[in-house]
Amino acid sequence: MSSNLFAANAYASVQGLSQGLGQPNAAGRLGGAGGERPDFSAMLQGAVGSVAEAGQAAEAQAAAAAAGRADVVDVVTAVAESEAALNTLVAVRDRVIQAYEEIMRMPI
Predict the structure, then answer these.
(1) Quick one: pLDDT at residue 62?
(2) In terms of C-beta density within 10 A (0-12 exposed, 13-18 middle, 19 or more buried), how is residue 82 classed?
(3) Number of structural domains, the chain?
């Protein structure tokens, strides 16, 4: 089933993004390979890029279906994957905003 495949790919993607987080390296420090901490902005850009790629894939499948070169099932699957990726991104954005607002409410 395509949704199971999408979930497995999403899990693998998250595991790849967080690789090295919370695990000590050879020097005993926390961080990724080479002793450097993973860059949060690069991780965020990668996540946004993957959402954009999913959207482009859905658009390409829809265009191919309109031209008669793709199956409707493939189009529906691509659109569903794109929707799931976008919903995930929106949920992460909402959590980041909630965390920021909570930090701003903390007394100094």
Answers:
(1) 93
(2) buried
(3) 2
Please state the φ and ψ torsions of residue 30, each to the nearest 5 degrees: -80, 145
Tens of pLDDT, residue by residue over 9-64, are: 665 665 565 554 444 444 444 444 555 677 888 888 888 899 999 999 999 999 99
Q: Which residues, in sequence order, are bridge partners of residue 30? A: 24
CA angle 13, 15, 17 (to 5 degrees): 70
**Do 59 and 106 have their domain in common?**
yes
Residues with Cβ within 8 Å of 108's Cβ and at least 6 positions away in sequence, in order, are none
Q: Are residues 22 and 55 in the same domain?
A: no
Structure tokens at 87: 């919903």
Residue 58, domain extent: 40-108
Q: Give Dmax (Cα) for the chain.
A: 62
Indicate if 58 and 17 belong to the same structural domain: no
24 with 30: CB under 8 angstroms?
yes
Instruction: Provide the pLDDT for residue 39.
Output: 85
